[in-house]
Amino acid sequence: MKRVYDEPAASDGFRVLVDRLWPRGLSKQKAEIDLWDKDVAPSGELRKAFHHDDLPHDEFEKAYTAELAQNQDALAALRGQIAGHDVVTLLFSSHDEQHTHAGLLRAALLA
User: Fold this and answer.
1) Is 89 helix (H, G, I), strand (E, B) or coil?
2) 59-86, pLDDT tens digit by residue?
3) Which of 36, 47, 63, 100 has its CB 3.0 to 4.6 Å from that of 94, i.e. a possible disulfide?
């Protein structure tokens, strides 16, 4: 996992953006994304509640985990798309690297 704004590296392997919105100020060419999977990102409502309405992170985690549990088709599709890649990097745009949905998504993919 890493911020999409960080410099792409060969060690990233297959790069998957897992945000619903395209990162501000970043060109698609500079981002070097292999896949943009909006379907596994938090819903627009949940994203807005967390970033704009001050939803506490623990409540965000519970809500996003519930969304992922209801979104097994999207998780299965992503698993299929990343299968066969030795290294996969989940990319996110959040400035707060410790309070991002990418870690929860990673855990759901590995479950």
Assistant:
1) strand
2) 999 999 999 999 999 999 999 999 999 9
3) 100
